[in-house]
Design goal:
By secondary structure, this protein is mainly beta. The chain has one domain. The N and C termini lie close together (12 Å).
Length: 90
Amino acid sequence: MIRNNINGDFSKVKKFTEIEPGAFINLEWNDKKLMLPFSLRRDYISFTDKKWDWRYSFNKDGSVNAKNPTLYELLPSGRIKEHLCQIKET
């Protein structure tokens, strides 16, 4: 779930166009609970704490590929491990 943090209200983001600086995402993945802050990027939407990086890519038409994000694990060795994800329908 993505939330904006404007004046401490933690409002839910319903559309990617509503994401503002200070936003963050809460993830539960592989028995891990992650809270990653929004990171401004040009070529994708990213939430990262410099150990984990959750990214949404853009489709050819410019829309966000919301169903197939990628989670990157930044390893101490400097390597990057890619975890392809699929969003569960709720």
